């Protein structure tokens, strides 16, 4: 299947690759592969292809064939090929990572299984494992003499014979990768590096992950987790990326494969496969970039994107046009301490089930109807009402035109489910019950957005809400009202925004070093020299992927002009254990540390609501090198409104129910494809397109931006 | 069923209240200095209505479940709501006036609207030190509460937004690390302010008369659901007896905990502690607030987890506490060592029900957490220099035992169960905070109770003192009484601890004690295993093979 969706016009953001070259983004999901291409003339093309999950080389070939046959793109003219992948995440969720061995300092074999001893569900009496034991069950774990003390001095030298004996045993047990975690290795990686050297001399086929490289920061359990996850997915990713590269070569594409990392920057496949644990949020990161891009296209830089799918609602924030990162995330509840876009998932979406609890209170979720049987309106045997059933019962979805008409919806099934399970027991009519379902699920989402914002010290009221995913458009205005947000943005193509985000992301590398010392009395020259080492590591990665030109004396031209180097320090008050990342202005060494302290106090005050002039210390130093994508704004320009704009709007109307109204209201039904730039309309209206439906309630006004984004504004009351 | 209130708005408000307490809790934990708060989440936040009933509680350590109820009650007794003004802050910690133990300081702040208190925010955090005879303020050898630190009855810490400087100076003068304590109080104040602001916004939107009615309805509904769940359990009285090792003073005298759980089939539950030991000389006595927390935990664990937790859940609960007993001591008995008692009470409550519902509840867990409080000073020249604001250090480590096996599930090794949910220290944090090196942290083989489903194993940990002397408060459990198996499963292994002196001598630690280690001395601890479930003869060959392969069971074991 293919559904080319050409968009005329040109990209105003400048050329992304060398002149005459095409740029391709490919986002491979479980069912569909989203393909976007900016042609040499700046035209944007989009397509959805069937995925071939088992064969990534085939996916590439299919994409290249489509590029050539449908859009006339010569493979040899492809200058960039950027990919967002869920392979790393799926390997964990499906437990299909490599068999790995885990080697720790003597006495710490069980580090990975004991964890920190706390549990997630506090009222459960029958407990489940809380640490990621599946990564390396006990018979695949070893310990060898090798450790440093808290100052980085060697307490136990590496016992090389013991190490090799342990590795031989693990190899005999068929491991394909090894994770090495020695205590305090972040202070001096020599022991771990020597261990790798010895292992690879004897067993060159093994993949080795060192904790001092994956996550050089203190707290050995968290470091062990991320290192073991890295080893677990490394062979899988390596094979996957190799096949993909082979596919590109066979198709005659000269561009190097680039991969989206969790932190929202792309890197070459070569650099990415060295630390695949940085790819867990590859997909959502591209979505967050796409959300930020949507905002930038209409001049908005403080954004909350809400991606609502069938089972979850992913919330991401962007400030100053850049998605916010966090220095530690998690997968299945286990800590993964690498920088990633700060995506907060809530278990609430279109498929969430509505139910009444023992006291007759209306609850929604956390259980979902899933794909089978799906919502009641799919008429596949589901009898419990979902949020989607409520949307249908309220007239917000067109049963004959859902997902471009590919899925027929049964209104009677939806109404019957709501009537039986909710409306009759509560003594409400079906529509009021359906509105109640939306109100409850929106309350969950709104509180989730509020907490996600507050955790970052952000007041959501000054932000714009970006509606993403199939469900974002139905909830966004209600969420905005709940959060006192005045503006909602709906990108032109919410369903393929992740693929578009791939093209807009910078090439980016981060290097980190633990640097525990009080700010007061720290040596600025020492800090600068450590930053210089980090800068060299980033530059090496950049050179490795062919961006050497961004450095050196001619850097001001070309890529160097888009290069940004940022230095950050993770800082906390002495005695505290959670830190704040603060930009480090390394320009003037004489004031650098004093400024850092002041900036830290301000950040602490903003995030935690208090700070005092207590002594503070540095925990880590970070350097981030990024080369901005030339592709700043992927959306093309729409044609202007017809001379008689009012006449251009279709006259279709439908009766729908809205919160607070005693009667159904007549809403205008607008076809998104037919909207021209500059057109305006008032709610109540429904904007329909293949990949989503946007509800514009009474009191809201819609306007079409030049790039096709919908800007919805709440009229002052 | 009441139909007075809108069932949709009710759920909207519930999300709002839960979001407010989570925001409080987040702010408190992130902003605090005390390692026990940061690492062990030993803190909690609640919202109360003007009558002093919990309307929302943060998801924290269950030992804090309802723990603020008695503190708030005590503050209201001293300062009726009619006397409260906007900007007031109340403080207290005295266990005999509704507190828990002295390190837990409660701060309560009223929300005043139109001159009337409409709600209160309350927080409690385990302070790193509140004075007394030992650093950390949890002395195992205390024999009266005066040894345990500074007692604060209900006091007004701030009036109309102005902190009582004299009171603050008095508190600072009586604790070992005044800056750390004030830092944590600041974090509590900030958390409380956030809650009041959010509550005020909510009130402005929905109106206080309506919100008050919704609070009442939320409580009534949780009560109704709890009663329904309790009524579904088999009616009857179920007894359970277990023993704590000793009180840390009279080392040869074990402590009996007896509970009779009575379900009346009408949705009421009573916990009667008749038969429990009389109050003891050492600090293992527990004041009623702690017993109630354990009972509340028991109610939450045996009813539906989907029921929203608030004061309504606890209305069907009656607790009978014999006077002058371990669970209802008279002042000035020492009470700082409440945690093991509270954990064992919770374990006994679940154990009583497991006798009639063995398919639903697990065998006994170790139900104990070994608490090690290390105190001392860094050497003048050798301070790690990265963490400690002063040369003196106080660090607490928490080491769990195994959980009980259940039908279909082996127990989990070294995991927090029942009332506590603390995180152990990592070796790297410990060594940065104190001149102590962790040499070993491992799963303890052969310690889980045998059975068709094996109990969780305990852990072993070995500490080396690098610079002495280091004083260690060692509070263990299950050195003398094993975690029993269920339905034919075996008991978990006993705990043991020993000191390996630098000169080669080995000393056994009798469950509880104040230890002093010099440089080169080592402390090695082995925590207890959980009980097994079902006859071991029914363990599958695959499970046995995996036990042997993992080494969690060695071939030498029967």
What keywords describe this structure?
heterodimer, A: alpha+beta, 9-stranded mixed beta sheet, globular, disordered N terminus, B: about 550 residues, alpha+beta, 7-stranded antiparallel beta sheet, 10 helices
Specify the overall morphology of chain B.
globular
Oligomer: heterodimer
Beta strands of chain A, count: 35
Element string of chain B (H = helix, E = strand) = HHEEHEEEEEHHHEEEHEHEEHEEEEEEEH
Q: Over all CA atoms, what is the radius of gyration of chain A?
A: 27 Å
Taking the alpha carbons of the first and last residues of chain A, their distance comes to 47 Å
| Proportion of strand residues of chain B | 15-25%
Distance between the termini of chain B: 57 Å
Chain-averaged pLDDT of chain B: 92
Helix residue percentage of chain A: 25-40%
> Total helix count of chain A?
17
Largest sheet of chain A: 9 strands, mixed
Total helices of chain B: the number is: 10
Globular, elongated, flat, extended or rod-shaped: what is the shape of chain A? globular
Largest β sheet strand count, sense and barrel closure of chain B: 7 strands, antiparallel
Question: pLDDT under 50 segments of chain B (min length 5)?
Answer: 384-388
Question: What number is the mean pLDDT of chain A?
Answer: 88
Please give the most extensive interface between any two protein chains, plus how many residues each contributes: A-B, 74 and 97 residues
**Which class do the helix and strand fractions of chain A yield?**
alpha+beta
Strand content of chain A: 25-35%
């Amino acid at each position: 299947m293919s559904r080319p969706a050409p968009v005329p016009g040109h990209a105003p953001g400048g050329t992304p690759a060398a002149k005459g070259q095409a740029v391709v983004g490919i986002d491979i999901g479980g069912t569909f592969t989203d393909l976007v291409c900016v042609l040499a003339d700046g035209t944007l093309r989009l397509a959805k292809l069937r995925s071939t999950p088992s064969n990534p080389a085939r996916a590439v070939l299919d994409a290249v064939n489509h590029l050539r046959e449908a859009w006339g793109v010569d493979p040899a003219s492809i200058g960039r090929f950027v990919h967002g992948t869920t392979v790393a995440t799926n390997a964990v969720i499906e437990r299909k990572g490599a068999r790995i061995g885990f080697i720790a300092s003597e006495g710490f074999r069980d580090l990975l299984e004991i964890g920190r001893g706390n549990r997630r569900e506090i009222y459960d009496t029958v407990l489940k494992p809380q640490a990621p034991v599946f990564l390396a069950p006990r018979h695949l774990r070893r310990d060898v003499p090798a450790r440093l003390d808290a100052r980085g001095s060697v307490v136990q030298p590496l016992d090389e014979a013991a190490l090799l004996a342990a590795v031989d045993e693990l190899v005999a047990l068929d491991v394909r990768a090894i994770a090495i975690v020695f205590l305090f290795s972040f202070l001096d990686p020599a022991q771990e590096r020597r261990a790798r050297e010895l292992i690879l001399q004897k067993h060159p086929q093994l993949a080795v992950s060192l904790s001092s490289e994956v996550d050089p920061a203190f707290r050995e359990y968290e470091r062990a987790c991320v290192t073991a996850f890295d080893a677990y997915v490394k062979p899988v990713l390596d094979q996957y990326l190799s096949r993909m590269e082979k596919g590109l070569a066979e198709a005659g594409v000269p561009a190097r494969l680039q991969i989206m990392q969790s932190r929202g920057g792309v890197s070459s496949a070569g650099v990415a496969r060295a630390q695949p644990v940085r790819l867990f949020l590859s997909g959502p990161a591209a979505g967050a970039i796409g959300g930020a891009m949507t905002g930038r296209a209409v001049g908005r830089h403080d954004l909350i994107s809400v991606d609502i799918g069938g089972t979850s609602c992913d919330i991401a924030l962007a400030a100053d046009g850049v998605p916010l990162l966090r220095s530690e995330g998690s997968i299945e509840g286990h800590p993964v301490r690498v920088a990633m876009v700060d995506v907060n998932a809530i278990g609430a979406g279109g498929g969430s089930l509505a139910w009444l609890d023992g006291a007759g209170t209306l609850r929604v979720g956390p259980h979902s109807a899933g794909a089978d049987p799906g919502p009641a309106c799919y008429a596949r045997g589901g009898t419990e009402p979902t949020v989607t059933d409520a949307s249908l019962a309220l007239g917000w979805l067109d049963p004959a035109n859902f997902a471009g008409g590919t899925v027929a919806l049964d209104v009677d099934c939806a109404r019957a489910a709501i009537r039986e399970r909710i409306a009759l027991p509560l003594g409400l009519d079906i529509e009021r019950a359906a509105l109640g379902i939306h109100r409850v699920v929106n309350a969950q989402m709104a509180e989730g957005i509020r907490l996600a914002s507050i955790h970052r010290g952000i007041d959501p009221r000054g932000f714009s809400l970006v509606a993403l995913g199939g469900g974002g458009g139905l909830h966004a205005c209600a969420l905005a009202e709940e959060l006192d947000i005045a503006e909602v943005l709906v990108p032109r193509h919410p369903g393929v925004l992740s693929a578009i985000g791939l093209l807009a992301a910078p090439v980016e590398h981060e290097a980190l070093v633990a640097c525990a010392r009080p700010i007061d009395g720290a040596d600025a020259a020492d800090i600068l020299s450590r930053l210089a080492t980090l800068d060299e590591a980033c530059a090496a990665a950049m050179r490795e992927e062919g961006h050497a030109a961004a450095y050196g004396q001619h850097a001001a031209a070309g890529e160097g002009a888009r290069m940004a180097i940022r230095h950050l320090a993770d800082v906390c008050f002495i005695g505290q254990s959670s830190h704040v990342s603060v930009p480090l202005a390394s320009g003037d060494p004489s004031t650098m540390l004093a400024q850092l302290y002041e900036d830290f106090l301000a950040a602490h005050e903003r995030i935690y609501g208090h700070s005092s002039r207590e002594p503070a210390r540095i925990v880590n130093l970070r350097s981030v090198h990024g080369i901005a994508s030339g592709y700043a704004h992927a959306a093309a320009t729409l044609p202007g409104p017809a001379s008689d704009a009012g006449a251009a709007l279709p006259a279709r109307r439908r009766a729908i129910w809205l919160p607070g109204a005693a009667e159904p209201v007549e809403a205008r039904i607008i076809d998104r494809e037919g909207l021209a730039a500059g057109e305006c309309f008032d709610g109540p209206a429904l904007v329909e397109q293949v990949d989503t439906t946007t509800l514009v309630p009474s009191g809201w006004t819609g306007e079409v931006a030049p790039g096709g984004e919908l800007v919805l504004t709440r009229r002052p009351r | 069923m009441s139909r007075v209130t809108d069932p949709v708005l009710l759920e909207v408000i519930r999300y709002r209240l839960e979001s407010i307490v989570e925001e409080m809790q987040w702010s408190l934990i992130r902003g605090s200095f005390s390692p026990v708060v940061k690492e062990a989440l030993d803190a909690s936040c609640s919202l109360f209505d003007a009558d002093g009933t919990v309307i929302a509680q943060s998801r924290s350590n269950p030992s804090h479940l309802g723990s603020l109820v008695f503190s708030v009650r005590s503050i209201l007794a001293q300062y009726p709501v009619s006397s409260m003004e906007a900007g007031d802050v109340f403080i207290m910690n005295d266990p005999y006036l509704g507190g828990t133990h002295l390190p837990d300081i409660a701060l309560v702040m009223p929300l005043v609207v139109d001159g009337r208190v409409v709600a209160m925010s309350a927080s409690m955090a385990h302070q790193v030190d509140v004075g007394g005879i030992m650093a950390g303020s949890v002395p195992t050898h205390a024999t009266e509460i005066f040894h345990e630190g500074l007692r604060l009855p209900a006091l007004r810490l701030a009036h109309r937004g102005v902190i009582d400087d004299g009171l603050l100076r008095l508190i600072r003068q009586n604790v070992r690390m005044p800056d750390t304590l004030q830092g944590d109080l600041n974090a509590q104040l900030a958390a409380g302010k956030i809650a009041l602001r959010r509550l005020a916004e909510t009130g402005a939107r929905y109106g206080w008369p309506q919100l008050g009615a919704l609070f009442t309805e939320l409580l009534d509904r949780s009560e109704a659901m709890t009663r329904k769940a309790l009524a579904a359990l088999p009616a009857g009285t179920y007894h359970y007896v277990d023993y704590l090792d000793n009180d840390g003073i009279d080392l040869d005298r074990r402590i009996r905990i007896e509970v009779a759980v009575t379900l009346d089939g009408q949705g009421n539950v009573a916990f009667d502690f008749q038969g429990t030991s009389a109050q003891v000389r050492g600090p293992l006595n527990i004041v009623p607030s702690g017993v109630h927390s354990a009972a509340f935990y028991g109610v939450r664990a045996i009813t539906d987890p989907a029921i929203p937790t608030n004061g309504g859940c606890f209305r069907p609960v009656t607790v009978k506490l014999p006077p002058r007993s371990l669970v209802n001591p008279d002042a000035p008995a020492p009470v700082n060592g409440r945690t093991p008692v509270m954990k064992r009470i919770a374990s006994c409550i679940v154990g009583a029900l497991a006798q009639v519902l063995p398919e639903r509840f697990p065998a006994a867990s170790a139900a104990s957490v070994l608490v090690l409080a290390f105190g001392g000073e860094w050497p003048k020249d050798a301070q790690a220099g990265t963490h400690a604001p002063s040369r003196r250090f106080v660090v607490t480590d928490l080491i769990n035992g195994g959980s009980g096996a259940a039908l279909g599930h082996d127990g989990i090794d070294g995991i927090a169960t029942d009332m506590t949910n603390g995180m152990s220290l990592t070796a790297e944090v410990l060594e940065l905070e104190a001149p102590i090196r962790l040499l070993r942290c491992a799963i303890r083989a052969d310690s889980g109770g045998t059975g068709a489903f094996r109990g969780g194993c305990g852990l072993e940990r070995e500490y080396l003192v690098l610079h002495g002397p280091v004083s260690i408060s060692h509070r263990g459990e299950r050195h003398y009484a094993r975690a029993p198996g269920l339905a034919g499963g075996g008991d978990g292994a006993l705990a043991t601890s020993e000191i390996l002196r630098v000169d080669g001598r080995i000393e056994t630690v009798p469950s509880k004690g104040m230890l002093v280690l010099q440089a080169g001395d080592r402390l090695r601890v082995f925590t207890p295993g959980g009980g097994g479930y079902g006859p071991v003869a029914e363990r599958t060959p695959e499970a046995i093979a995996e036990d042997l392969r993992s080494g969690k069971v060695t071939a030498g074991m029967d």
